[in-house]
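Researcher: Quick test of sequence recovery. Tokens follow.
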């Protein structure tokens, strides 16, 4: 059993038996030399004596207070570690900096060692913090998943699903997909975020989202990939652009002469476009680069410039012309992405089923 699992098991054991389980910190100061941070926590059945509470405390502490303190300490610890600064961490937590410092000192006292080196402007973790924080971080994720499980309703009369999508999907997929799901399950709330594929991988790993819609070429042993459908990039024009009257496929020599508005390099689609140019020795005439798909579409609709976007956008943007290329772009697979072994709420499972059937 991992350290994180031990912490989680201890806390959840207390949750299941409020009347007799009390979480408290080390019995005496001589436990400060323990090398295992998980060993700093212990459960006891029945009432505590003043000597058992440790560190000179004179008050018996209830289950609710101790559990709340433990979780608060973990959240504060993670915030300081991530921000590298007590002031910034306090701002993200919406607490005062002195209160945060006091809580961290209390945790250090409970664990029997210094967690942060406070010399200089940047707060640096000590060896003790390195040994403890990953166990604590994973335990907190597991507890948050457990909290969602407690609120999960099997008949979908309520629920919540956190979804991320790569940017191009907001222009043609998200609207009809979510609209149909809301018709089927009106009581389920949806939190949707637009992210890059790299950010999606991080968000899944940190349990900030339940699932994502991206591409199957994501390479991670920690993520389940379920193919949904095939997608191909193509040339898109609008308004009175000459390409709107073309009846045959555009070859590389012709494509090189087409003024283009393209997405910036931080978009996955732009990487595919650049690969295609290199593979066919095309020197494109890129006149405009934009970090917004909706902005690109506005320019294209004016009829003075073309772009390269997924052909599937035709379902939502029928006023544009979709011109085939010869040779065409390779097919890429749109996929459902989920973290392996993560708790899957009924709401998120229902959304995944809806995506697979869409």
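Model:
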């Amino acid at each position: 059993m991992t350290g994180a699992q031990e912490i989680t098991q201890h806390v959840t054991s207390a949750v299941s038996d409020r009347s007799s389980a009390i979480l408290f910190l080390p019995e005496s100061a001589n436990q400060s030399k323990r090398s295992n941070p998980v060993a700093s926590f212990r459960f006891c059945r029945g009432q505590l004596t003043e000597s058992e509470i440790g560190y000179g405390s004179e008050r018996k502490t209830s289950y609710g207070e101790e559990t709340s303190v433990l979780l608060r300490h973990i959240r504060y610890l993670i915030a300081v570690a991530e921000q590298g600064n007590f002031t910034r961490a306090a701002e993200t937590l919406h607490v005062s900096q002195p209160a945060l410092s006091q809580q961290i000192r209390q945790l250090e006292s409970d664990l029997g060692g210094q967690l942060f080196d406070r010399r200089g402007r940047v707060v640096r973790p000590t060896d003790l913090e390195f040994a403890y924080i990953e166990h604590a971080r994973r335990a907190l994720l597991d507890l948050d998943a457990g909290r969602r499980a407690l609120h999960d309703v099997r008949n979908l009369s309520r629920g919540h699903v956190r979804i991320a999508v790569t940017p191009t999907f907001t222009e043609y997929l998200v609207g009809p997909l979510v609209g149909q799901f809301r018709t089927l399950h009106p009581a389920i709330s949806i939190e949707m975020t637009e992210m890059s594929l790299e950010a999606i991988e991080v968000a899944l790993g940190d349990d900030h989202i339940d699932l994502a819609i991206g591409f199957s070429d994501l390479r991670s042993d920690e993520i389940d990939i379920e193919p949904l459908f095939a997608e191909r990039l193509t040339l898109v024009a609008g308004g009175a652009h000459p390409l709107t009257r073309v009846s045959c496929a555009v070859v590389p020599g012709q494509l090189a002469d087409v003024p283009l508005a393209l997405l910036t390099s931080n978009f996955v689609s732009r990487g595919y476009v650049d690969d295609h140019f290199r593979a066919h020795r095309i020197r494109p005439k890129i006149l405009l680069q934009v970090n917004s798909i909706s902005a690109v579409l506005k320019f294209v609709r004016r009829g003075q410039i073309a772009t390269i976007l997924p052909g599937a956008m035709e379902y939502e943007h029928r006023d544009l012309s979709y011109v085939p290329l010869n040779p065409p772009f390779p097919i890429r697979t749109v996929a459902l992405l989920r973290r392996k072994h993560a708790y899957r709420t009924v709401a998120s499972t229902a959304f995944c089923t809806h995506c697979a059937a869409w």
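Residues 233-329 form a domain with the D-Maltodextrin-Binding Protein; domain 2 fold (CATH 3.40.190.290).
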